[in-house]
Amino acid sequence: MRPKRLYETYRLVYCRCMTSPAHIAMFSIAAHGHVNPSLEVIRELVARGHRVTYAIPPLLAEKVAGTGAEPKPWNSTLPGPDDDPEAWGTTLLDNVEPFLDDAVQALPQLVAAYEGDTPDLVLHDITSYPARVLAHRWGVPAVSLSPNLVAWDGYEKEVGEPMWEEPLKTERGQAYYSRFHAWLEENGITEHPDPFVGRPARSIVLIPKALQPHADRVDESVHSFVGACQGDRSAEGDWQRPAGAEKVVLVSLGSSFTKQPAFYRECVKAFAGLPGWHLVLQAGKHVDPAELGDVPENVEVRSWVPQLAILKQADLFVTHAGAGGSQEGLATATPMIAVPQAVDQFGNADMLQGLGVARHVPMEEATAETLRAAALALVDDPEVARRLKGIRAGMAEEGGTGRAADLIEAELP
After folding, report:
1. Exposed (0-12), middle (13-18) or buried (19+): which is 84, by Cβ within 10 Å?
2. Are 204 and 45 in contact (CB under 8 A)?
């Protein structure tokens, strides 16, 4: 056992013996891709006797309450999962400005919600800027629960600076940073916005290490990879493989970037005509099934599906390569066609292809012919199946929910 891992094991055993029930406060936004990865960890902390409060907009409060945590509702100005994805805009500043705006207006709400109820430790999603401000005010530890990749040594030079080079030349870009600086300083934080957002002091990473770019350059004294934290999803519903379905393919672009009727029509063309194939197509809330034209009997179109239940029986997953979907595909050893839509999904698609378990197909190239060719190559390749089996075994050794809870308890004062 490596010395660092040996120390971690000793520390966790010691802390488990010494830990008494604590008040742990979790903070996130109303986005399924940011809330779902944390739910099993929260459920485990509650089961261990801790009082867990979860600051979340009302839209997902019921889902949070299902873990046994106490929701602390607050009102967000961010586009929600039911809103048109076009509300997020198209440029980098379009994407980041809403998070700062939301943080500024959310902070007073959260101060009031926790008046006289200071937690012993703060957990936060990577998007929750107010959580880090509150932890600083309260003088308590803060632990990031990252639902996707984290910064590696050299990330700022290789990714951050090139990405911001043009926006920083504009008055709008400079105003964004100026406002962020001022907000932090008002709250007693002198740190630059970039490390404030991207360099937490402690981070539990809720993805398998296999999905992390440049994993050998990640500081594992800060970031601990625990892999998928998947629990009982029976409450989401079940799904049964139809009789006679020799191959099952699931198509899902997640919960946000689903307004893609033309792409769905290509998927129907690609798979409906393959003998013995059954297609499950999650079209989201912004696409009318009538937009897909005549749909054959071996195609089922839904606005939402119990994804994990289907993947456990599927032979292929056509995904937007979000962090949650990507790791569910790996955990169920399902070959994937990655058609990324936004943010980290492009990098995830490249990672999956690099692992030899997926094909990265850009949206503009996702024709029926391209999708069908990629599908047939993946499902019939024994090497793909071998690699998926090996990755799934490696994920099982990362510890998942139990190790995540252990690491969080180790940070309690």
Report:
1. exposed
2. no
How far is the C-alpha of 410 from the C-alpha of 413, rounded, in Å?
8
d(CA 225, CA 8): 13
Q: Model confidence over 253-277: pLDDT tens digits?
A: 877 777 888 888 999 999 988 999 9
Please name which of 360, 343, 342 lies closest in space to residue 351, comparing C-alpha atoms.
360
- Tens digit of pLDDT for each residue in 318-351? 999 988 889 899 989 999 999 998 777 898 999 9
Q: Which two tokens stand for residue 142?
A: 């803060």
DSSP E strands, 283-350? 299-302, 316-319, 336-338
In the block, which residue shows the tokens 């005549």?
A: 294
Residue 220 corresponds to which tokens in the numbers above? 């594992």
Count CB-CB contacts under 10 A for residue 24. Answer: 25
Q: How far apart are CA 314 and CA 332, in angstroms?
A: 9
pTM score, whole prediction: 0.83
**Range in 11-15, 95-99, 172-176, 404-408 the model is least confident about:** 11-15
Cα(222)–Cα(300) distance, integer angstroms: 44
Helix and strand numbers, DSSP H then E, in the chain: 16, 13
Pairing between β-strand 70-73 and β-strand 203-205 as defined by DSSP bridges: unpaired
- Which run of H or E residues covers position 250? strand 247-252
| Residue 369: closest CA among 269, 296, 260, 251 | 269
The amino acid sitting at 227 is G
Look-up of token digits 């995830």: 348
* Integer Cα distance of 399 and 26 in angstroms: 21
89-128 as b/e: b if 16+ CB within 10 A: eeeebeebbbbbebbbebbebbeebbeeeebbbbbbbbbb
Residue with tokens 């090139």: 162
Alpha helices in 127-234 (DSSP H): 129-138, 155, 161-164, 171-186, 193-198
pLDDT at 7: 47
Q: Is 51 helix (H, G, I), strand (E, B) or coil?
A: strand
Of 374, 370, 331, 382, nearest in space to 353 by CA? 374
